[in-house]
Amino acid sequence: MGTSAAYLAFRTPVDGPEPFPGHDRDAAATAGWTYIADRIENCDVLEDGLAGIPGPALSALVCDSDYALVTGHLNGEEQWTAYINQHLADALEVPTPDLPSAEDEDLLDRITAWAGRPVDRDRLRQIFATPYTFADDGLLALEQLLGVISPKVRPFGTDQRTDHEISLWAPAGETVPDEVIAEIERAVRGEAFPSDPDENGHRIVFFVPKSADAVPAFAAALRASGLSPATRINGDGWTTLAELGR
After folding, report:
1. Both 84 and 205 in a single domain?
2. Residue 154 lies in a domain
3. What are the residues whose beta carbons fall under 8 Å from the beta carbon of 91, sequence distance 6 or more?
4. Bridge-partner residues for 80, per DSSP?
5. Are 200 and 106 found together in one domain?
6. Which domain of life is it from (predicted)?
7. pTM score, two decimals?
8. Could you tell me if residue 181 is inside a domain?
């Protein structure tokens, strides 16, 4: 399953007490930076502590590895906000800016000003435009570009998985029966991790052997399942079961 966590990076104070003394420090932070993590439900604790941190800080919320909300702060004041995997945040009906981060030149200007040094704008655009299987890897790429995390840290998501992740999302009010989930597992030789149905629908993440025919085999199994044509699938980008049948 995906990661849901809150992260905070800030310049390590030269004088005075160290903020958040009860949190472990990530050794992957570059020299001069402190990097901590907490459960996503404790994000307010990290946000509240920002007011007393001088200089630049970077906060991030990763939601089930689907998308990440990243904010740059300076002396406790918000300077910019951007999304990793904004297309998924939009699909999940999370309030987002109308303009994608990769196309927002003013945002790129504010990130560069916050960094206090030149930043590769083409790489920024690429990070914001890339549809990551795991938003965590997009966050890592941004943190490395901004000099917060060591460039030696490898992405822990897509490149290190032996399986292919495919998400299925039934419309609100519908539940995918257990027998259908089991049949899809058998058809694609994979493993399913269903979430509880809620007001947004019923989401199931499948991990299937990574191969060229993984997504087509999954699509074939879905077409035989009798699920609603409005069911959404994300293997190599979001689509619907109706669109798969065309």
Report:
1. no
2. no
3. 232, 238
4. 72
5. no
6. Bacteria
7. 0.64
8. yes
Q: Residue 31 contacts by C-beta under 8 Å, 6 or more apart in sequence?
A: none
| CB 46, CB 9: distance < 8 Å | no
124 and 227 inside one domain: no
How many Å apart are CA 179 and CA 182, to the nearest integer?
5
Q: Cβ distance 116 to 56 under 8 Å?
A: yes
**Domain count along the chain:** 2
Cβ–Cβ < 8 Å for 204, 231: no
- For the chain, strand residue ranges (E) read 5-11, 33-39, 56-63, 67-74, 77-84, 163-170, 191-194, 202-209, 232-234, 238-240
Work out the burial of residue 152: count CB atoms within 10 Å of its CB; fewer than 13 is exposed, 13-18 middle, 19 or more buried.
exposed
Q: Which structural domain range is residue 36 located in? A: 5-145
Q: How far apart are the first and last CA of the chain?
A: 31
Q: What is the DSSP string of 193-233?
A: EEPPPBTTBEEEEEEEE-STTHHHHHHHHHHTTT--TT-EE
- Among 114, 145, 176, the domain-final residue is 145
**Whether residue 123 is found in the same domain as residue 179:** no
Q: Please state the φ and ψ torsions of residue 114, each to the nearest 5 degrees.
A: -65, -40
Spatial CA neighbour of 141 closest among 29, 133, 128: 128
pLDDT in tens, 127-149: 999 988 889 999 999 999 999 99
Question: 131 and 10, same structural domain?
Answer: yes
User: How confident is residue 112, by pLDDT bands cut at 50, 70 and 90?
Assistant: very high
